Amino acid sequence: MDKLHLPGESIGIIGGGQLGQMMAASAKEKGFKVLVLDPTPNCSAAQVADEQIVAEYSDLPALIKLAKQVDVLTYEFENVDAEAIATVKQYTDVPQGTSALVVTQNRIREKNFLAEHGFPVVEHHIIQSKAEFKTSLEKMGMPAILKTVEGGYDGKGQLRIEDENYSKDFADELLESGICILEKQIDLYKEVSVVISGNKNGEQSIFPVIENEHERNILHISNCPAMIKPETQAKCLEVAEQIAKELHLVGTMCIEFFISTDHEVFVNEIAPRPHNSGHLTIESCNVSQFDTHILGVCNWPMPKVKLFSSALMVNLLGQHIYRAKKKIQDHVEWYFHDYGKGLAKPDRKMGHITILTDEIEATKEAIDKDPIWRKE
Ligand code: ADP
Ligand code: MG
To answer: Which residues sit with their C-beta closer than 6 Å to ligand 1?
Structure first.
């Protein structure tokens, strides 16, 4: 079913967080009806959608109910059950399929896919037991990072092993939770990402390279264009295009890269969905990563991306949002986004600010000094 989906039809979105919300907003602009499935009543996406089915993502009868009501189905995150998606395919069009999901929801499958296709990945060992962990760590040396294979995000399920004084308890906890992966810690020069979207006809829209700064493994600031060498940019764009091709990408995906201090490029991970680093495309480009997601899944032609202005995005976590709201009147240059989440828990992504500026460095410095983002 390589269907073209037109305004007036309905789009179902599994997951109702901020990514679903911004997808839904884009779909509404184009005249689609939007139904969201999420366990939290009045979740972020439901606030801009036509209807919400309140149910767990794993609730198969609820997923079937959603599928039966919509013309095309998509998802906002990678931890949807691929088998459930395969099941609901008989009731609706699921243009993204499940192959990108299956590859990216497990770090081992992801690393294997990348390595098999010749994409550069960080040295890593698969760890099935405490004994294997010990021998692998000896072989690899420190610093290293131990990661769970499934379900990690924002640095959750990760242990940094700088030296002998690492937390043995947390290592045990991760190792007991299932298979893990031990990665060599790269001496990072920079982290960047490439957002790319595709449709069933194999057309692609690719966004310029975005540079990312993390605080305690959570994305803090992104800017575009990335301030890296043109040949490194070209390499990242080329790798992203090839990965998208191999995965028969439909909709939006993001590839995170590490650039080492000796300017080597590694693929860190792939998110088969719009990405936090791509939020700045909403104001800075002719189309946003959410627009190209909707265009891709609806099989519309994929536009060439134009960056109208350099931009910087800074996240507003639970500990920042209240202070930031109080300062709105002082910042005409802010494009303020609030996801409408009920509870401002620490480290929870509550919103973001985008600033269009040619002064990326100066703007970053101002944010660094701003008490809104002070480290508690
Ligand atoms: P998540 O799924 O939580 O985003 P990542 O694997 O992307 O997990 O790791 C989160 C962050 O931790 C990265 O963006 C990077 O800053 C740091 N990190 C992870 N792995 C490595 C590594 N091998 N070398 C250096 N830094 C790393
Ligand atoms: Mg990551």
So the answer is: 122, 145, 152-155, 183-186, 188, 191, 214, 217, 256, 268-269
